[in-house]
Amino acid sequence: MEPRINLMTNEFGAKFSKRFAAAGLMIHQSTLPRSTQELVSLRTSQINGCGFCVDLHTKEAAAVGETAVRINLVAAWRESSVFTDAERAALALAEEGTRLADAHHGVSDETWAEVREHYDDNQIAALVSLIALVNAANRTGVITRMKGGSYEPGMFDAVAS
């Protein structure tokens, strides 16, 4: 399966990607811990089956100091002992916020209460924005058939500026 289009070399795609990357940069600069951002992004990408995004967030997580054990256990975070209560709340929000069509309730009140317990309003805003942004990126990657394996950490840093 070959990629259908390279949005980075397409005129409209390149302009959109620059704005998309700027939104990502804003989230990266928030007070939401970068490690949490990458774990949430990785889990969201796993759920959506975006090979490129799983590659990207696996490598970015390692680049910000995540261990191989924690990266490898993200897919089974509920059955793992290596995540903090705050990270577990963020991962639950990511799953429920990604699987909106799979549940009649969307994000549960219980999950929301857990998130409120561990994060301030600005961090929650960043977390919600991150989940929405990664879901959009995943859909772009899946629709265009972007392949995993070629990402290098920091590869898109220049796009946002």
TrEMBL record:
GO molecular function: peroxiredoxin activity
Pfam families named among the record's database cross-references: CMD
InterPro entries the record matches: AhpD-like, AhpD_core, CMD-like
Domain Carboxymuconolactone decarboxylase-like residue range list: 23-96
PANTHER family recorded: 4-CARBOXYMUCONOLACTONE DECARBOXYLASE FAMILY PROTEIN (AFU_ORTHOLOGUE AFUA_6G11590), BLL7811 PROTEIN
Protein name: Carboxymuconolactone decarboxylase family protein
Source organism (scientific name): Actinomadura soli
